[in-house]
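Hey, can you fold this one?
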Amino acid sequence: MTERLPLRAGYALGGLGAWLAFRVFRLRLRVVRDNLQQSFPHWSRARLRDVEREFVRRQGVVVAELLCSMRIGADELRERVTITNPGALAAAGAPRPI
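Sure. Predicted structure:
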């Protein structure tokens, strides 16, 4: 059902879902905070919280775009995505199995 929503509505629902996951249910919130503090020990608490909020917001965007990507065709994908440096992509090689 959600993959049929317009992308803007998907962004709103994805943002709400991410907010609920991190703020209400506190899923992986401690991991995010610990990683930020270890990665940027010189940053103020306020700056760390700003980055944390932006991370949560972007998780919602990722979910919305993932759902949208399952319903668009190859032509629409080509219209939306531009590879600015195909040489770098080719040099990265084939993906390795996880």
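Helices lie at 7-24, 29-39, 45-69, 74-80, 86-92. Let me know if you want another pass with a different chain boundary.
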